[in-house]
Amino acid sequence: MSPWSLGQVQAAVGGELLGDGNPAPAALSMDTRTLRAGDCFVAIRAQRDGHAFAAEAVAKGAVALLVDHGLGVDVPQLVVPDTLAALQRWGQARLAACRPRVVLAITGSVGKTSTKELLAGATGGWKTPGNRNNALGLPEALATLPEGLEAAVLEMGMSNPGEIRRLTEIAPPDFGLVTNIGGVHMENFADGQQGIARAKGELVEALPADGAWVHLAGDPWCRWVALQPWARARAVPVGPEAAFGWEDEASLGLHGEAFVLRHPGGKVPVRLRLRGVHHMRNAALAGALAILAGFEPEAVAAGLGLAEPLPGRGRLHPLRDGGWLLDESYNAVTESILACARTLLSLEGGEAVAVLGCMRELGPAAENLHRQTGEGLRALGLGRVLVYGDYARALAQGFGPGARAYPNFEAMRDDPAGLGSIPAGARILVKGSLYWRAARAVDWLLERAGIP
What we know:
The protein is an alpha/beta fold. It contains 15 helices and 20 strands.
């Protein structure tokens, strides 16, 4: 089944077709900055009205528009009452028409995207690209889902209750994986950690009774989810005393990690290109779910080894002076900052330095969590921390001597004791929440000292 024509989309989602119904968009786009010729531009009303950018989209090669009123541009248009609702119906209908043998869904407080890459490798499956894990990005990706797939691996994120439930309505999963349940987005949940666990559990609630989901055996909130009456699918813990688990861990330094994946039928060796103990845990979860979904353990192990670090999520850059830059700039919570710091310390090199943007959406616990993060980095043995953002002072106080706090990235960049003071040969971790755009520090450091 090739991508749907605009006429076929109309049959699936309704609306009024203006112009030729034959164009079959290769993909959907809601952003003219990334739109490619041959796409359908979807005009979403959000902070900015996407309809204002329709002419630009057409100029860049859009072959069709999804809009809520007809526009004076010379391309076919599907006019619907609500473009977001129509986008979601489009993705939902395409998945129903081209449904793979198994649909596997992933959520969790940290590690979703890297685990998605691992699970896609383990199953040889199609995966949602990038971080398209919300009610806009997921249906956008599904709208041109290929046919004849063995597996589809879908990442599902959330900031508020009900968001994952909506994603599972758009894309009902057969199997699920929860990487962990932590305190991310705490400020959005009046009932605290239990509210977060309930929201993550919306994925589990959506699974069929004969389905299964995996979680770390030691995660108390995942165990709480497994005990709830709405969690009908089989919960499969992965850990030291469980039928599924990992053992014989070995760090390969620059070359990744190695371990043995244990499953009810035996054991298989795994060698990862990803670096860090946390990736071994996520790989064990992905491997366990792939085996439960019917994939052969040896093929699963080989596929896990194909996953590559993504930009902002563990990509390692050699520096001209002999040091290393570990780019983990995509996002940050305490657990992931400390896990990435351990990975940094496993590399050979000079002084270990963390360059951090603050964490976000932590609610009343934010200041204390930043202080604890600083204490944790000091306990691990890092030599220095440069941190910027609204809780930078608390993190620096937790770390103690060797930490410097700044209100913003520019202050850290311009201070002679800031970014420019990191010595030659240093091992540098860059990490921070999306809000603080820590990738700017990566770009600055690579421009100064990276290998072309």
